[in-house]
């Protein structure tokens, strides 16, 4: 059964916010808040998630066939994800494991789809 789309949107926003916060805390050395650039990135990512027409079927933006981020913002989020992704296991293990499981499911689904 598919997840409730508004709940899925909120979960995705929470994950991206946590990843950006981790990145900002470790790279920009700001405690208990986000720097200006990271605040803007969170806002932008949340806007993109709110407007995503594929929310019902997609797992993560990186698996999406349509890239709705502007090139500059896409590069910024890519840097954040590369940094925060592996560290999420230490700071947010449940979120990280959920991500791994969903990614494996998506790869399996795409493999089965391409074979048919």
Report the average pLDDT across residues.
Answer: 87
The main pleated sheet reads as: none
Question: Based on DSSP secondary structure assignment, what is the total number of beta strands?
Answer: 0
Q: Roughly how many Å apart are the termini?
A: 23 Å
Number of continuous helical runs: 4
| Beta-strand fraction estimate | under 5%
Shape: globular
Low-pLDDT parts are: none
What's the alpha carbon Rg, rounded to whole Å?
Answer: 15 Å
Estimated structural class: mainly alpha
Order of helices and strands: HHHH
Oligomer: single chain
**Percent range for helical residues?**
over 70%
Structure description:
- It contains 4 helices and no strands.
- The protein is mainly α.
- Helix 1 (5-27) crosses helix 3.
- The longest helix is centred in the first third of the chain and has 23 residues, at 5-27.
Task: Give a short summary of the structure.
With 116 residues, the chain is mainly α.
Please specify the SSE layout and strand pairing.
Layout: H1 5-27, H2 36-51, H3 71-91, H4 93-115
Helix pairs in contact: 1-2, 1-3, 3-4
Key terms:
116 residues; mainly alpha; globular
